[in-house]
Specification:
alpha+beta, five-stranded mixed β-sheet, single chain
Length: 707
């Protein structure tokens, strides 16, 4: 292992995996804290005494000592040098347990969230400037400090992985994505609650850069995995180009005057070098691809271009370290050999060798890394809750666990659907593709055929067929087993925006921005009818459980109810001055929930189309909504990157699903109510465990009060 200091005391470069410039990764330092001088223990005892008297305090003393002893152990081991004194996994488990202790304590004694003498004084050193420290009577500072260390510890775990195998590289990638998830969560949560003045290493800009740094290293592990698995040169080129783009973004960040006060200027040199290195690699891989495809004449100028680019990269490497410059020299030799081989082969092929400017090598990156929020940092539960004698935990809001993140689309995910048996997920993206996944995370097929963004997807109840709608004005019917196109549904004059399949699987409804809904027989591929009445584009379709009623939402600020037996309009909403983004019917077909371009969810009586209740929220817009099979709750996706679960009986917020990093555009819930699937503008699909919501049945549907 060769360690080269990049930032004084704080960041080191790790060559542990492979002796090439491609293997270099950054290891983050932790934050150091100091002893609370028993003030934390005394504060907790005082709180218990005020609630349960001296006897209660005496009984809880051993449990409180376990918490403070755990903190004392962590104090000795966090914020250490590059190589931790204890294995990263052991340190991670201890950090997670202490964070769960803090959450459980605050849930029992909410006063700890405030300020005052009941909150002990915590002191934390800056990770990047250890001579600076922040001391506050703030539990948020304490949680933020240990969350930061959890992120750096997971980074250490990733670096300790054996990245010389595809499996090890994948493991490291997932760990770096988890580290990114910690910093993302920290930025949006505890760091924002810290009292002024906020430590530099907890500033939004700094945490955003640390998130990017972890993601670019996860992407680098995905690149390494692709190389080890010998995937195609073109796919490798896409991964390399994405790395170049990400490193260039980081370079611009490190040039920001505010960040230059936190990070050493050597980080600018490092990221500039890495951006150049991976761009050269992307060009070289395109050259190799052309050669392997038989276009040896075109391969020659591309490989020359890669070789020329590496000359500049080598100079950039010298500003980082001589070792890195030597590593680039080895890469130059590899490219030179590839160029010599291409020239040799062309003496036989005698192909025209164009000028480099005549060869189109347009590169489009492929992003395979997204933040993943680690599990096991919530509350102490069950036998693990050694603080239970202090009283019950007040947890009115549940944080649901993300089971897995599906990464593969290169554009925003516009549509998601989960099959009736819960075994498959279908996704549609702005990248123009439809993907079929095996639950939990196996990519089974990518379907090509649309010529524009895919806006929506649906699956038939028998799980054999999926349908996709697109901005290319068509809907396509696919065989899920073979991936073959079964039918092309044409006729709309504008974007196909939404889909719905009847419960018997015989009919598909297609909504469009041409203001109409077309009804198709899936067996014959023939159109059976058209519903007309909206004055603006369709945004959403939902069906009653018997398949006889369709509810449609539109940009004309109305919701309409249609009889599918007679193809007649039954009812229409009035008086709502908001663009309707989505509608979802409850299982009994008596009400529906609408999400719109305002801060409200509305529950409608489908018989009268009157608003029974309005649920106000703090978000600007809800983009999608899905009702649980039990009918007692709904989930919504919004413009603040969060998914929320609402109690339709009380209007109260029941739970949050946190992990996406951009708008939530699409949602679906499995028929058994145990899984929620979400698609986002961040390009990922997340699968959430909401099994607790499946305990109630539709027959127990609550009355909806005026909220």
């Amino acid at each position: 292992v060769m360690l080269v200091t990049v930032l004084e005391h704080v960041i080191i470069i790790d060559y542990a995996c492979m002796p090439t410039a491609f293997s270099i990764l950054i290891c983050l330092p932790g934050k150091k804290t100091i002893d609370t001088d028993s003030s934390f223990q005394n504060a907790l005892l005082q709180l218990v005494r005020s609630k349960s008297g001296d006897v209660g305090a005496s009984e809880c003393h051993p449990s409180i000592s376990r918490v403070t002893d755990l903190r004392a152990w962590l104090q000795r081991h966090v914020g250490t040098a590059a190589k931790p004194e204890v294995p990263p996994q052991e340190l991670r488990e201890a950090l997670s347990k202490y964070l769960r202790c803090l959450s459980s304590l605050v849930a029992r004694f909410p006063i700890l969230e405030g300020e005052g003498t009941c909150v002990p004084r915590f002191t934390w050193h800056d990770a990047f400037h250890p001579n600076r420290c922040t001391a506050q009577h703030s539990i948020s500072l304490e949680r933020a400090g240990f969350l930061f260390n959890l992120g750096t510890t997971i980074c250490h775990q990733a670096l300790a992985s054996d990245r010389s195998t595809p499996e090890g590289a994948k493991d490291a990638s997932l760990l770096f994505q988890e580290a990114a998830g910690v910093f993302t969560s920290l930025q949006a949560g505890e760091a924002a609650k810290i009292l002024a003045p906020q430590p530099d290493d907890m500033s939004p800009m700094c945490l955003a850069v640390l998130t990017k740094l972890m993601l670019v290293q996860a992407q680098q592990c995905e690149y390494r995995k692709a190389v080890l698995e010998r995937v195609s040169h073109r796919e490798t080129a896409r991964l390399a180009e994405q790395l170049s783009v990400l490193y260039e973004e980081l370079r611009r960040d490190f040039c920001d005057p505010k960040l230059s006060k936190i990070f050493d200027k050597s980080m600018v040199a490092y990221t500039t070098f890495k951006a150049s290195l991976f761009h050269a690699e992307a060009i070289a891989q395109i050259g190799k691809a052309l050669h392997s495809e038989g276009a040896v004449g075109k391969a020659i100028p591309v490989l020359k271009q890669a070789s020329s680019h590496l000359l500049g990269t080598k100079e950039l490497a010298k500003s980082v370290s001589e070792a890195m410059a030597g590593s680039v020299a080895k890469i130059q030799d590899v490219v030179k050999k590839a160029l010599a081989l291409a020239k040799r082969d062309n003496t036989i092929a005698q192909q025209h060798v164009p000028a480099s400017v005549e060869v189109d090598i347009t590169l489009v990156g492929a992003l395979l890394a997204q933040p993943i929020l680690p599990s096991n940092i919530g509350f102490l539960d069950g036998e693990d809750d050694f603080l239970s004698q202090m009283g019950p935990v007040s947890r009115p809001i549940q944080y649901f666990e993300c089971m897995t993140t599906l990464v593969g689309h290169t554009g925003e995910v516009r549509g998601v659907a989960i099959s009736a048996d819960g075994d498959h997920i279908v996704t549609g993206s702005a990248d123009g593709t439809v993907k079929i996944w095996g639950v939990p995370e196996e990519l089974l097929a990518t379907l090509y055929g649309h010529t524009d963004e895919v806006t929506s997807v649906a699956i038939t109840p028998d799980c054999t067929t999926c349908i996709s709608g697109s901005r290319d004005k068509t809907a396509k019917v696919w065989d899920m087993k073979t991936g073959q196109l079964k039918a092309n549904l044409t006729g709309h004059t504008a974007v196909v925006s939404c889909l719905a399949v009847t419960p018997d699987g015989s009919t598909c409804l297609v909504g469009s921005y041409d203001d109409t809904i077309s009804i198709w027989d899936l067996a014959s591929g023939q159109r059976k009818g058209v519903l007309q009445g909206h004055e603006w584009g369709l945004t959403s379709l939902s069906l009653s459980s018997d398949g006889n009623t369709c509810i449609s939402g539109s940009g004309d600020e109305t919701i309409k109810v249609w009889d599918l037996q007679t193809l007649q309009l039954k009812a229409s909403s009035k008086g709502i001055e908001a663009y309707i983004n989505c509608v979802a019917a409850n299982p009994l077909g008596t009400t529906c929930v609408s999400a719109s371009w305002d801060d409200s969810l509305r529950i409608w009586d489908l018989a009268t189309m009157e608003v029974k209740a309005t649920i106000k929220s703090e978000v600007r817009a809800h983009f999608c909504v899905a009702v649980t099979p039990a009918g007692n709750s709904c989930v919504t996706g919004s413009d603040d990157d969060h998914i929320r679960m609402w109690d339709l009986g009380t209007g109260h917020l029941k739970g949050i699903m946190d992990g996406h990093t951009n708008d939530i555009i699409s949602l679906d819930i499995s028929p058994d109510g145990t899984i929620c699937v979400s698609g986002s503008d961040d390009g990922t699909v997340r699968v959430w465990d909401i099994a607790g919501e499946a305990l109630e049945t539709a027959s127990q549907l609550p009355e909806t009060p005026e909220l």
